[in-house]
Amino acid sequence: MAALRALALLLWVAAAYPVLFRARPVQALAVNWGTRALHPLPGDITVRLLRDNGFDRVKLFEADTKALQALGHSGIQVMLGLPNDLLAPVAASVNAAEQWVIQNVSTYVSKYGVDIRYVAVGNEPFLKAYKGKFEATTLPAVQNVQAALVKAGLARQVHVTVPLNADVYESLDGRPSSGDFRPDISGLMLSLVRFLLDNGGVLTINIYPFLSLYADPNFPVDYAFFPAPGAPPSQASVQDGNVLYTNVFDANYDTLIAALEKHGLGAIPVIVGEIGWPTDGDKNANAANAQRFNQGLFDRIIAGKGTPRRPRMPDVYVFALLDEDNKSVDPGNFERHWGVFNYDGSPKYPLRLANGRPIVPAKGVRYLSRQWCVLRPDASPADPAIAGAVGYACEYSDCTSLGAGSSCGGLDARANVSYAFNQFFQAANQQKAACNFNNLSVITTTDPSQGTCRFEIMIDTGRHELTGKSPSAAASNHLVVSSWTALLLTMASPLLAHALINTLAAS
Questions:
Q1: Contacts of 130 (CB under 8 A, 6+ apart)
Q2: Of the candidates 77, 73, 164, 75, which has an alpha carbon nearest to the alpha carbon of residue 125?
């Protein structure tokens, strides 16, 4: 019964927060490439990282110009997202859909040689937390995008899908065979799936076993992971007729398949659009758990082993390739730490690919100077100005690793302040004025990292080995730095703004 409650919980947690039935080639992997980073890994280096590690398919959440250009002629297939904020205008106008397809699909296919295979219309638009905001616009947007692809002559190559959260279906008794769509959107789901099926589209579902542990400390931990080969089934396993479900992924996926079959829609291909495990920002988010989960997932993908209802593994887009320090943390601090790789493309933990081959780091990455911003040795962490300075630093940089149970959660008061100051300093491209917190900080060349807590040095986005630093690239990087400086001047305290003005005047 604990496992039945576990499956029901996973489905509840999700509410709060070409041919796919054949086995994939043994080295073929798919991954999400998020681009919400203050210092993104350059596109050409990221594409090489993908290829070096056997990722032949990638999902982008939006039409990021640099990412798409880098993917041109790479041999990597692309699922391209149309964000939720565009659903309404695209749903309201076929012309808007046509213009979006021309600008973001046709252009990159014809001009840059990007192998776009799917357009993902919206991202989890039926999530309960949205309270129906996108329910009226999603299907019309899908229909208009499909019509636009037909008009552009791309409908045979590019197919439409909708990435959905697992909260669109449920099982009242916890058994996958009892799966059905959520009553409030059942009719909408049936219409959407029928349209996708009739037009060569696919259904995409996001599954997150991690959220079960995040929401309930009593969740049966073993059930969230794939069982090790030869290991006895967890006591949390779910018996469903003559089928024993030994992990959340299989049970959750098959709950959807049962719902589809119940309504005569079992022929629709179902992609797993997001699945993974974060490494920071929560007590359950660490490298050990992430390695355990993702190694089990990679093993299943490489072996082509599916679920009881779909024995051959579908396309599974691992979430995610890289950490993103500029993502929203509304779901939790872990949101910025889903990457299999760190922000700079270095592996967080060992993973075995096909034939036992290890994952490899990004090549050609260059960094800003080897320096950090820390609390002055003669300053006291108890200084009344500290709280405001730290609050400001963390408002405009990423301090999610400082939480309880996180990688930097064990720092003392002095190191805690230094970490916050350094994050802001690095986010601001190490501008000297960004290490001027009411005279409480100082720049050091001694690495202050300690234990599991890494004091980062950001990527130099203007200098790396795989792409020459052309005048246009240099100008682009200067524009990014200038934009960041302007942002600091707009939002900074008067003292910091004054310091930045003086720095810019002297440069």
A1: none
A2: 164
State yes or no: is 124 an active-site residue. Answer: yes
Question: CA angle, corner 339, sides to 393 and 25, nearest 5?
Answer: 165
Three-state SS letters, 2-42:
HHHHHHHHHHHHHHHCCCCCCCCCCCCEEEECCCCCCCCCC
Distance CA 169, CA 180 (A): 5
Euclidean distance between CA atoms 76 and 112, whole angstroms: 13
DSSP code for 429: T
Domains of the chain: 2-356 (3.20.20.80), 372-506 (no CATH)
Helix axes 138-151, 186-198, angle to 10 degrees: 10
Q: How far is CA 338 from CA 252, 327, 422, 455, in A?
A: 20, 11, 22, 19
Which residues of 61-193 form beta strands (DSSP E)?
77-82, 115-121, 159-161, 163-165, 169-170, 180-181
Instruction: Please pick, among 62, 170, 274, 456, the residue that the annotation labels catalytic.
Output: 274
Is 135 among the residues known to form the active site? Answer: no
Residue 275: C-alpha distances to residues 3, 206, 271, 280, 345 (Å): 20, 6, 11, 16, 19
467 SS3 class: coil
Residue 252, classified by CB atoms within 10 Å of its CB into exposed (0-12), middle (13-18) or buried (19+), is buried
Extract the tokens encoding 91: 């749903």
Residue 479 burial by Cβ neighbours in a 10 Å radius (0-12, 13-18, 19+): exposed
Q: What is the residue-level pLDDT of the chain in tens, covering all 507 positions? A: 555 665 555 565 555 553 333 334 444 799 999 999 999 999 999 999 999 999 999 999 999 999 999 999 999 999 999 999 999 999 999 999 999 999 999 999 999 999 999 999 999 999 999 999 999 999 999 999 999 999 999 999 999 999 999 999 999 999 999 999 999 999 999 999 999 999 999 999 999 999 988 888 888 999 999 998 888 888 889 999 999 999 999 999 999 999 999 999 999 999 999 999 999 999 999 999 999 999 999 999 999 999 999 999 999 999 999 999 999 999 999 999 999 999 999 999 999 999 999 999 999 999 999 999 999 999 999 999 999 999 999 999 999 999 999 999 999 999 999 999 999 999 999 999 999 999 999 999 999 999 999 999 999 987 655 543 333 333 334 334 444 444 444 434 433 433 333 333 333
Dihedral of alpha carbons 399, 404, 410, 414, sign: positive
Q: Which amino acid is at 289?
A: N
What single letter denotes the amino acid at residue 312? R
Distance CA 19, CA 147 (A): 22
- Exactly one of 62, 124, 335, 456 is catalytic; name it: 124
Reported as type and span, the H/E element at residue 485 is helix 471-491
